[in-house]
């Protein structure tokens, strides 16, 4: 559809009914302005056929009837007028081969690219403003009464996540703060009467806000109810978000989990029937092991974590990585690296080990936990040594045989420093 046909539907950009149509048009124009920055039509033939310039000039022609009705688009209207003047100047300079014409073309081309960037910025600011207004309006409605169109809200939240994931933008941050969007997201997340998938989508949106600007939004996570709600939900999505938040916020978040009694609830997830949830709970345990301070680790051990890990390692989805070369699961080549850590602290693994862990997610889970404590950020050196000794004692107590205990103890001693 040509831009001019779309423009006919845009009678009032400020009206709620027309906003989606205006949004679609401005998205197309933003793309056109983006293209124009890279290809500002260096010669006459391209200038006459440039779809990007034509699309933007069509909007400039209609600007009095459309843009003037929204004060937030007044700057865009001025940029479009500037673009028209620059294009006219560029038109007039083509066909002349004097030094003055050459310099005029160079200057006009540079100015067109600069104005196109300003147009893109103004359009994105308008889109952000309308998107935040729409999202906050729908979230407020959800607080008052059940929302009938879950798919619409999921789509709005997903679009917001995508926008925030593009990187920091001060104007967007101001919009989020002024609209109190974080509080709305947290309110829906913490409301057990809200649909589960909407609560989960709100949780993902909060995670993106932390990545967007940790300095601003971490405090709201630590002081609010987000963490408790994620643990109470006990879904794969909520635990995935919790793991992501632990990696982002690190020890302070683990402190909050421990101080509010969240450690036992996370440990209990290792007993759930849902395999995906158990695997994610295991990931969460390992993240806490890496970033947790003494109090958090003590709480995990008090809840019988080592016994549960021994049981998981004993299951069909467990196993011992230390035995891979001996039991035929691997060729055990001299140059093949084998490690027992997880995440970003494990180092490189051989392809056979990675494949084995994909099929046996609880393999060597006791030693993997011990490694997290050994190389992590939360413990002092003497605390690491003390906890390793305690883990060895608890392994002996939890194992069903001396052979099983010997294997796990060897992994713990081999996988972490003495």
From TrEMBL:
InterPro entries given in the database record: ARM-like, ARM-type_fold
Transmembrane segments: none
Annotated segments matching region Disordered: 1-20, 325-344
Signal peptide: none
Name recorded for this polypeptide: Nucleotide exchange factor Fes1 domain-containing protein
Species: Carpinus fangiana
Lineage: Eukaryota, Viridiplantae, Streptophyta, Embryophyta, Tracheophyta
């Amino acid at each position: 559809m040509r831009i001019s046909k779309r423009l006919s539907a845009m009678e009032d950009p400020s009206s709620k009914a027309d906003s989606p149509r205006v949004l679609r048009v401005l998205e197309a124009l933003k793309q056109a302005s983006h293209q124009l920055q890279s290809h500002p039509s260096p010669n006459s033939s391209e200038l006459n056929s440039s779809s990007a310039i034509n699309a933007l000039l069509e909007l400039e022609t209609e600007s009095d009837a459309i843009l003037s009705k929204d004060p937030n688009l007044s700057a865009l209207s001025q940029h479009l007028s500037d673009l028209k003047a620059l294009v006219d100047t560029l038109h007039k300079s083509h066909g002349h081969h004097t030094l003055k014409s050459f310099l005029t073309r160079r200057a006009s081309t540079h100015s067109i690219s600069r104005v196109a960037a300003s147009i893109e910025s103004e359009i994105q600011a308008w889109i952000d403003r309308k998107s935040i207004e729409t999202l906050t309006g729908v979230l407020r409605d959800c607080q008052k009464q059940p929302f009938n169109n879950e798919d619409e809200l999921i789509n709005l939240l997903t679009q917001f996540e995508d926008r925030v994931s593009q990187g920091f933008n001060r104007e967007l941050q101001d919009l989020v703060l002024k609209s109190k969007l974080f509080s709305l997201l947290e309110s829906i997340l913490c409301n057990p009467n809200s649909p589960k998938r909407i609560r989960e989508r709100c949780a993902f949106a909060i995670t993106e806000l932390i990545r967007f600007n940790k300095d601003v939004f971490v405090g709201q996570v630590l002081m609010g109810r987000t963490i408790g709600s994620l643990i109470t939900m006990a879904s794969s999505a909520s635990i995935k978000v919790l793991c992501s938040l632990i990696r982002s916020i690190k020890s302070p978040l683990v402190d909050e989990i421990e101080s509010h009694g969240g450690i036992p609830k996370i440990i209990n997830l290792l007993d759930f029937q849902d395999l995906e949830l158990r695997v994610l709970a295991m990931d969460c345990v390992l993240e806490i092991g890496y970033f947790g301070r003494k109090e958090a680790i003590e709480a995990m051990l008090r809840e019988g974590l080592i016994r549960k890990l021994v049981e998981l390692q004993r299951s069909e989805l467990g196993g011992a990585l230390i035995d891979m070369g001996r039991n035929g699961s691997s060729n055990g080549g001299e140059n093949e690296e084998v490690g027992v850590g997880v995440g970003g602290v494990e180092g490189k693994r051989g392809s056979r080990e990675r494949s084995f862990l994909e099929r046996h997610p609880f393999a060597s889970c006791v030693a993997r936990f011990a490694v997290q404590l050994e190389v992590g950020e939360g413990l002092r050196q003497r605390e690491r040594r003390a906890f390793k000794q305690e883990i060895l004692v608890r392994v002996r107590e939890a194992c069903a045989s001396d052979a099983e205990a010997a294997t796990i103890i060897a992994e713990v001693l081999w996988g972490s420093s003495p």
